[in-house]
Amino acid sequence: MKFHKYKISKEQLSLIPENERSFFLLSMIISDELNMLIRLGWDLIGETDNEVIAQLQNNQRIFSLFLVAGKLWDGWQSFEKSFFKSKLSKKYESLLTEEGKTSLGILKKYFSNKTNLHKIRNKYSFHYDLDEIKEQFREMDDDHIIEFFGQEKFVNRFSTTCTLSIEKILRAFDSDQDKAVDLFFEEIIVKTAINFRVVLSECIEIIIKEYFNDAEIIEIPNELNKETTRPYFFEKRMP
User: Fold this and answer.
1) Looking at the chain, which runs of residues are DSSP E strands?
2) For the chain, what are the domain ranges?
3) What is the DSSP letter of 125?
């Protein structure tokens, strides 16, 4: 696999108008985080006949989606301010590919409607809300069971409490929890995060082509895989 490696100095960055420079750096940060979290979300999809592993795998998927949802909300708020309110959109929208324009349209429509991202971000992704936990307990069915799995000395332990924390949101997708998680994944990763990544990537590429031309070609072995690389950064085709 071949890559273009750019070395960009502060002096070079200082030559870019401030609003574009800030937008460029912000886009790089959000894009890096989304790339990692999207990769994690896909990697946590797996099939197993073991009931315990399947349950814990599902819980890990939900937890990863919490993080993506929070990052999407914060990322879009910052993107909206630096892209639309700064008027950079007048320059960049026309330079996007058809795929980029389609992705941006999907994002604008999605965020113009009421979503659960803000609630997930404030109450589950980045904060621990005791009042919310108390409310969850009060609303818990009398026959509700929380399952807890712990190894020796409980160094590695997992419970099903993360599904409790988002049960209301999951029920809005489907009454069956497994189907609800799949639909939740579809909305957060497939319909939102991946489209956001497309737009950010194209904006980054536009800025690099306009202001930075020199790149070093580097190559990484094609046999790079999950077994030999942690974390697993690259693959031939991202999902």
Assistant:
1) 2-5, 148-150, 157-159, 216-219
2) 2-219
3) I
